[in-house]
Amino acid sequence: MSFATSHAAQTYAKVGLETSVVTASPHQLILMLYDGALLAIAKASNAIQQKQVAEKGQAISQAIDIISNGLAASLDFSAADELANRLAALYDYMCRRLLHANLHDDQAALNEVTSLLGEIKSAWEEIADDPAVLAHQKNKVAA
Q1: Backbone torsion region of residue 48, taken as left when φ is above 0, otherwise alpha when ψ lies between -120 and 50, otherwise beta
Q2: Which of 56, 112, 114, 138 has the fewest CB atoms within 10 Å, counting from its CB?
Q3: How many domains does the chain have?
Q4: Is residue 109 part of a domain?
Q5: DSSP letters along the chain, please?
Q6: pLDDT at position 8, please?
Q7: d(CA 4, CA 39)
Q8: Residue 82's domain spans which residues?
Q9: What is the largest CA-CA distance in the chain?
Q10: Which of 121, 71, 111, 105 lies closest to 91 in space, CA to CA?
Q11: Domain for residue 45, yes or no?
């Protein structure tokens, strides 16, 4: 593939992603963050196997950024339940495990975070079609 073709494909993918973000519901945006974090961790895992230190560091940094500045920042602490506090603590733990994985090329730590993110993402997917969740989202957007 030539540079021009590769650049065109990357630009097309970026426009597609930007369009998806603009048209996504808040629930879908959270799912996109989970997907992005999982993809970054998969890249880091591959980079560890290939002994690509810089790529590993970039991918882990991206995953940490998504978790701390995307997922954790989107938590709603105004609710009376403990869910937001528990998720915040879990996201903090995941970031520490990713830092550990970066420092020690620890595949097990990457697998652990992948598993945790996958479980939470699955829960988000299960409630995606819940009428109560959809109504709550509409009320927040309308407010």
Answers
A1: alpha
A2: 138
A3: 1
A4: yes
A5: --HHHHHHHHHHHHHHHHHHHHH--HHHHHHHHHHHHHHHHHHHHHHHHTT-HHHHHHHHHHHHHHIIIIIGGG--TTSSSSHHHHHHHHHHHHHHHHHHHHHHT-HHHHHHHHHHHHHHHHHHHHTTT-HHHHHHHHHHHH-
A6: 43
A7: 25
A8: 28-142
A9: 55
A10: 71
A11: yes
Q: Please check whether residue 18 lies inside any domain of the structure.
A: no
Take residue 96 and report the two structure tokens written for it.
């520490």
Residue type, position 142, single letter: A
Segment 10-14 shows an average pLDDT of 46
How far apart are the C-alpha atoms of 106 and 33, rounded to whole Å? 23
Please give the distance of CA 41 from its chain centroid, rounded to a whole number.
9
**Mean pLDDT to the nearest integer, 63-92:** 92
> Looking at residue 62, what is its pLDDT?
98
What is the token pair recorded at 49? 């196997």
CA distance 98 to 40: 11
Q: Which of 8-12, 64-68, 78-82, 132-136 is modeled with the greatest confidence?
A: 64-68
